[in-house]
Amino acid sequence: MPSLRPEDPFFQPVSGFELPRFAGVPTFMRLPYVPPGHDRFAQVDIGLIGLPWDAGTTNRPGARHGPRQIRDASSMIRAQHPVTGHSPFATVNCADLGDVGPNPTSIEDTLARVTAFYDAVVASEIRPLTAGGDHLSTLPVVRSLARSGPLGLVVFDSHTDLFDSYFGDQLYTHGTPFRRAVEEGLLDPNRMVQIGIRGTNYGTDDIEFAKEQGIRIIRIEEVFDRGIPSVMAEAREIVGTAPTYVSFDIDFVDPTYAPGTGTPEIGGPTSFQAQQAVRALRGATIVGADLVEVSPPFDPSGGTAYLGASLMFELLSAMT
């Protein structure tokens, strides 16, 4: 766990006592904007990144607009955690690294663009915290992070995203990223846990693949039967102390609390239970994380984006 360091004023978020939260150019959590090439880029420890891309969506699009709305909503985030009193901004240098520019007409080209961007991030020893984008966004990120060896993975989701293809030949969708990542050797299936899985099915191909590979699936019924603390203790045991990636799909949360997503599933956790789950990860060796599938067109109120921003703060706190 990083120790407290003297605060560098440059890397501190703008306080609402200095500039009203409705004013100024929005960045993630009101942090400084430090894109690649900036003279302070190499001093960043954790970089918040937007990945505005949803070409992997198979039904309701809109997650490409997620990062912009999450940035705006994140102006409500303050510096100190309400329960622990921990301030990630007083522990590590955090900054908004900007957006990865996708190619909206080519999945393959965008995958390459994203990996190239994150290669530069990883080369500077910056741990990324990403706002997507649909869940395919995770694949090119872990391609960069796993160059030194396969990662463990904790996924909060209502879907496994372990399908092989869509319409028989489309290998890259938001339903396939973790299957591709396992096949490419980016993830260690014996250190993978998927939490909150639920909803009707096309079949059981994804579940059978998980069983064959040794991936632990914890369905929502088990989550509620055992409770968040018990489930998260098992998740921590599965990933151990080795490098681990955390991926949070906003549809893990019940659509009562998070309607702004492309593939909602009823019967999910509350927003508070989602906070509890992420908080239980603090102390794990988290090399990167993401919050995906916020789709603003399906929640004009902006409540889903604010939940996404709040959960990103929880992830940031868990990483520090």
Describe the secondary structure blueprint for this structure:
Blueprint: E1 46-51, H1 66-73, E2 94-99, H2 107-123, E3 127-132, H3 138-145, E4 151-156, H4 177-183, E5 187-197, H5 205-213, E6 216-219, H6 220-226, H7 228-239, E7 244-249, H8 271-279, E8 286-292, H9 303-319
Parallel strand pairs: 1-2, 1-3, 3-8, 4-5, 4-7, 5-6, 7-8
Q: Summed up, what is this model?
A:
The protein is an alpha/beta fold.
**Low-pLDDT residue intervals, each spanning 5 or more residues:** none
**What global shape is seen?**
globular
Structural class label: alpha/beta
- In CATH, the homologous superfamily goes by the name Ureohydrolase domain
Rg to the nearest angstrom?
Answer: 18 Å
Q: Would you count the extended β strands for me?
A: 8
Order of helices and strands: EHEHEHEHEHEHHEHEH
Return the average pLDDT rounded to an integer: 96
**Distance between the ends:** 6 Å
| Percent in helix | 25-40%
Task: Give, in spatial order, the strands making up the sheet with the most strands.
Answer: 2-1-3-8-7-4-5-6
CATH topology: Arginase, Chain A
CATH architecture: 3-Layer(aba) Sandwich
Main sheet overview: 8 strands, parallel
What is the C-level CATH assignment?
Alpha Beta
Which percent band covers the strand fraction? 15-25%
Tally of contiguous helical segments: 9
